[in-house]
Design brief:
By secondary structure, this protein is of the alpha+beta class. 24% of the residues lie in helices and 30% in strands. The radius of gyration is 18 Å and the shape is globular.
Amino acid sequence: MSADGEDIVPLPRGSAVIAHSAQTDVGRVRSVNEDTFLAEAPVFLVADGMGGHARGDAASRAVVETFRRHIEAGRPSSPEQVLDAIHSSNEAVRALSAEGEEGTAVAGTTLTGVVLVDAGDDAGFHWMVFNIGDSRVYSWDGRTLEQLTVDHSAVQELVDAGLIRPEEAERHPDRNVITRAIGADDVVDPDVWLIPAGGRQVFLICSDGLSKEVDDDRLAHLLAGETGHAAGLAGVLVDAALEHGGRDNVTVIVVESQLGSDGDDDDETTRDRADSLSGAAEDTTPRTGEGEHGDVSA
């Protein structure tokens, strides 16, 4: 499933033009796609239902449905509304577990994304980045790909502690163990960042079906390249994951925003494109319990 489009979000002074390219694919190994995305300004998110657990696909859909109820489309939200949507999503997914016949089975999903918010108190508009689990949000300035979120995973904790090297993480037996998830506990603890919104900004949001198949150097190369792919940039990135094995469901959203009336890009920090974005492996296991940003030159 793919969804490319462009929205104009009115602001008190001027407007935000937000284009997106989104696509999800079951991959080459799985029979069910447990990923779900929401790409409707002002909110863009990816939820990756936990494979091997009860109702992973229903869990990710519940998150999207909850955000649709809590966040008004077509206008900036607020940090409080986003946090309320996250906590309400946790309650909705917990309810799925309570309804199951298995008793001990737990529905769960990762959740990551960005929302355009009014931070209030004259702070202005920001992109609110949030994360629970090992799906990711990156920023892209035309030259550098930076991972904004920090994986909530067992191997990330080992890397942070200096016990293993980053290149060893992908081969580690606990590489699919996540340490936080929507639905895993009564109370969810999201990571949140507020990034001032202004000028041209690009975000890449994805499930681990992309990040575990395609490294950051390749992602930056694909984002920098010109393409006429019918599904836009998201389709290009999904295809790359499939070409590298497609061992998991893969979901990608690329978001490009332009705030203000000045539409000129700095050629030293952004790449030219003829069209806007709108044109153009094993089961994950939750673990109860409680980074660094990475830069990649294109």
